[in-house]
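Retro notes
What went well: the complex prediction finally ran end to end.
Inputs used:
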Amino acid sequence: MPSKKEKPTFIEEARRKQIVDAALQTIAGQGYSQTSFAEIAKSLGITKGLIAYHFKGKQDLIASVLRTIIDNQAAYLRSKLVTYESATDKLRIYIIASLEYIETNRAHFVALVDLWGSFTSPEEKRAFNKTFYGPCISQLQEIIQLGQQTGEFGPFDPKILTHILQGALDGVMLQWVFDPNVYRLTDCTDELVETFLHQVLRKS
Amino acid sequence: MPSKKEKPTFIEEARRKQIVDAALQTIAGQGYSQTSFAEIAKSLGITKGLIAYHFKGKQDLIASVLRTIIDNQAAYLRSKLVTYESATDKLRIYIIASLEYIETNRAHFVALVDLWGSFTSPEEKRAFNKTFYGPCISQLQEIIQLGQQTGEFGPFDPKILTHILQGALDGVMLQWVFDPNVYRLTDCTDELVETFLHQVLRKS
Amino acid sequence: MPSKKEKPTFIEEARRKQIVDAALQTIAGQGYSQTSFAEIAKSLGITKGLIAYHFKGKQDLIASVLRTIIDNQAAYLRSKLVTYESATDKLRIYIIASLEYIETNRAHFVALVDLWGSFTSPEEKRAFNKTFYGPCISQLQEIIQLGQQTGEFGPFDPKILTHILQGALDGVMLQWVFDPNVYRLTDCTDELVETFLHQVLRKS
Amino acid sequence: MPSKKEKPTFIEEARRKQIVDAALQTIAGQGYSQTSFAEIAKSLGITKGLIAYHFKGKQDLIASVLRTIIDNQAAYLRSKLVTYESATDKLRIYIIASLEYIETNRAHFVALVDLWGSFTSPEEKRAFNKTFYGPCISQLQEIIQLGQQTGEFGPFDPKILTHILQGALDGVMLQWVFDPNVYRLTDCTDELVETFLHQVLRKS
DNA sequence: AATGAATGAGCATTCATTCAT
DNA sequence: CATGAATGAATGCTCATTCAT
């Protein structure tokens, strides 16, 4: 393990990223239970000792993988959302961008679901949930509350609807991730936008 | 392993069920990665040799666990659906019963998600998906198509809506399974019924 | 690991003893730092998995080794001491038997010194010391105090003399254990008996 | 590793000493088995590569540590002994100084005992013994033989008594090193001086 | 002189699986 | 039917050592 507090060197940073990416691909490709240091190392043509050199342990490595997945997705969503003003537009683009992202980063989602199995205790699972869901949920809830403040959206429980919409997105992505041939993701996008926009815009 | 073709004895059947149940609870409680034969055996007060005797291997055991989860849920849904005639009623009860079932059988869903990690190759994962989602999806799709035939429901792509509704259900259950304190499942039920009934009943 | 509370089977007990003995010999022969499960297993023609099956871990195994060494020696000394009545005789036989025991069980002492290195923290080392030295010291101190009560021995600080005599015994054994050719152990016995009996018998 | 034959530079010499000292403290503090290059390097704020650069290998380093311990003690004893003329005085001061040295350099003795475990083969252990015990024993034996030549001491086997006295010293130090609270080292000093001076001075 | 990236062998430990009893 | 002894492959991890920079 390199020195603790000093800023990491260029080569160090590059290796870490390389290993994290390989880990992510291995998890997505072979499942978490088959993702050993040896397997990751083999896929990179390095030794497993090198992975242990760059990461404090397996937990550290998968935490980094998780971080990467979450941060990437969050950054993508944020970059899309900033260009729109109205809550209606933001909500539409949130749905579209969420599915778009998964379509081009399927491995991320596969790995994410698999990683769930790496947390053994209920406490760890809850923490994992918070880390992963937290940012999405709050981003979405802000949009919905914005819509209610501006009067664009009707009166409904914002928290419940947030979770249902996010749930619908995740559920749809999940099925597609399980089997990409089950439907075209874009067809779902349209239907989801229609269903939920219609629902939030109802005034009575 | 008992003889291949003979019908299983009573005790044989009981043991298998006992072991499958213990496996399910262990997976839900400690996670799949912590679920060894030894762990299951300990929770039953038997030896791991006995588990190996009754099942061809670990894959065989978890396949049985999976079967149990799926069959139980399917049976529950079916028993609820038969008492209703109209597609609208059937759809409402499908949503309600799905969430009801998970609320009283949370361990099943926890185990199900965890078990996803036990499939290593993409092919296995796809097969798992077919086995698990298949029955739910076709049951739901039948209801929706029924509604369109009777004229209760409006004109929309039945397949896509089926997947979106099922996805919304799964997504909502998933979040609740991750953290039971995130919302009351019944609150979601109402909102889901309202959202989707409104959507399918639209005529234009 | 076999069942926790039930009495161990015959074969279980035999294996454990066999493994403990092999561990002791390996430690004495190659040093603790070279004593791996693999090494012990190789010397027995079994697999290292079997050692892990019979012992909870390495700590458990070396604790058993330690126990064996200490108990054996203590039992030997006790069996010798009971046949004598007077403190003078007991003291003489304590010295003689201590060296006798080491002469026929050199490996025990070699292993004992080596095992010291297996305890990393000062607390562990102190505990080790208590476990090992405690029984010897108290046995010896009882003899000396007996001698002072019966009037056989003169007036001196019994605790200090106990430690000095035990120290002399250990030091002499240590040198001989390091290099058996340095002197004949029996020559030391005579001189030690003479030196210390003379010392304790002094009345003024 | 620096060039073989050239005399070492000032900085080279300083580094080696610094590393040897750190190694000694680490061994005494955490035990030999926990003393890795990384651990020593960390305690000095340098990299383990640097240690490998200054020493041929781990064996080389611990040999240097050993040398330091032995030479320091020998130098201390010699400096004390030269100021006395008679064998009786020399013997008394040998005992006193030996215990004095350990009292102020406890870490040296702790490390010494721990280092015993770093020698794997019986041959290495014997060599270690010779290196360590040799100087002490010959110094002590010279004193005793001097006393017999001058007629101060009585007629006894000088070799055996040398070893017994040295053994007593080591044994007493060992117990105190194991647990400094077991007795005050100075109390032992007095008793040891009394016991052994009385013994060597006996004329019959 | 010194660093830090990289190696490769070795470690204790876990576990599904086999099989004689 | 059931046990428990035994295996062997795999896992995460440690560490002395090497070497280009």
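What we learned: Chain B touches chain A through 51 residues (CB under 8 Å).
What to try next: split runs per interface for comparison.
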